[in-house]
Specification:
- The protein contains 11 helices and 10 strands.
- By secondary structure, it is α/β, with parallel strands linked by helices.
- It folds into 2 domains: 148 residues, D-Maltodextrin-Binding Protein, domain 2, CATH 3.40.190.10; 138 residues, D-Maltodextrin-Binding Protein, domain 2.
- Strands 1, 2, 3, 4, 5, 6, 7, 8, 9 and 10 form a 10-stranded mixed sheet that branches.
- Helix 6 packs parallel to helix 7.
- It is globular.
- It starts with a helix and ends in a 6-residue tail after the last helix.
Length: 327
């Protein structure tokens, strides 16, 4: 015995499904090619660099529309990628390590991000001004200090620097949690005495402070904490220098701590998209340098330094084509 009405019903169901898929396909394709690049605050380097990167990718990768988003920084960016709300993010290597291992700010869950490329070294700025009474790290005790905005890599690193110097960031200072631009406004208004900022050189907000009439900035030396930081957290940090003259009125070099910046993506990103992003950024690097000078330090040779997060297979493919072996 046959049941033609069931057969017709099934055919109708299949036809409806095919029609729905046909309607959804263009939207799915469009969604795949629309990417969000999460950066940081407007006063730092991530945001203009991310904006320049978004322009290059939108211009040169067929079908891709990229936009740069303002965020709190590394921690926020990793959590947004983990939640599927962002495809690409700028992060600091130490925040990336924590996310990959499920440590510190990521104790509630690891983030399966993948490295697209090693970018440029971020420099820890401990910024004060003449007259605030801060000449060395220990002078921060009892002072009003911004440790970076919530959700930033700056905040993680600020506490690690203070810890290595024997300063309790919760008890020994009067803590504020401000981004670079907000910190500059606060120090101009004498609402804080110093602030931590991890970023490229020059950082626009710090330049703004240094160029303010009647104010002379003071960058506090702190490279002595590197060994203690690396002993506890792994080989993530290196001793380095912000050269004299990097900021108006900065008349001597500042010894400080560097941590590398990394561009990461969701592990769900297709190999082809990851390949296209990395290839385009390296091939159009001069256009990125025109946006911010730190882009000069994005180099193929830096990729072999490795990353605490494994490289995306698509990125790895491009780099291996250039003779660069990565993890």
């Amino acid at each position: 015995m046959q049941f033609p009405h069931l057969t017709l019903a099934r055919l109708a169901t299949v036809a409806a499904a095919v029609a729905a898929f046909a309607l959804a396909a263009p939207a799915m394709t469009q969604q795949t090619n629309r990417i969000s690049i999460t950066t940081g605050g407007t006063g730092g380097v991530y945001y203009p660099m991310g904006g320049g990167m978004a322009n290059i990718l939108s211009k040169y990768v067929p079908g891709m529309s990229a936009t740069a988003e303002v965020t709190g920084g590394s921690v926020d960016n990793l959590k947004l990628i983990g939640a599927g709300k962002s495809e690409v993010g700028f992060i600091m290597a130490d925040a990336g390590w924590d996310a990959y291992q499920g440590l510190d700010k990521f104790k509630d869950g690891k983030v399966n991000a993948r490295t697209l490329m090693v970018l440029y070294p971020n420099k820890m700025h401990i910024v004060s001004v003449e007259g605030a009474g801060i000449n060395k790290l220990s002078d921060l005790k009892g002072k009003r200090v911004s440790t970076g905005s919530p959700g930033s890599g700056t905040e993680i690193m600020a506490f690690r620097v203070m810890e290595a110097a024997g300063i309790d960031g919760k008890k020994d200072i009067k803590q504020e949690r401000l981004g670079a631009a907000e910190s500059v406004n606060a120090i101009k208004d004498r609402k804080i005495d110093a602030f931590f900022w991890v970023g490229g050189v020059p950082t626009a907000a710090v330049t703004d402070l240094a160029a303010t009439p009647g104010i002379k900035i003071r960058l506090i030396d702190h490279d002595e904490v590197v060994d203690a930081m690396n002993k506890k957290y792994g080989p993530l940090y290196v001793k380095s220098v912000i050269p004299a003259g990097s900021y108006p009125g900065q008349d001597k070099p500042n010894t400080e701590v560097d941590v590398w910046n990394i561009l990461v993506a969701s592990d769900k990103m297709s190999d082809q998209m990851a390949y296209n992003i990395v290839k385009t950024v390296f091939e159009k690097k001069p256009e990125l340098v025109a946006v911010h000078s730190e882009a000069k330090n994005i180099e193929l040779k830096s990729q072999s330094l490795g990353s605490p997060i494994p490289f995306h297979p698509g990125a790895k493919k491009y780099l291996e084509e250039q003779g660069i072996k990565v993890n």
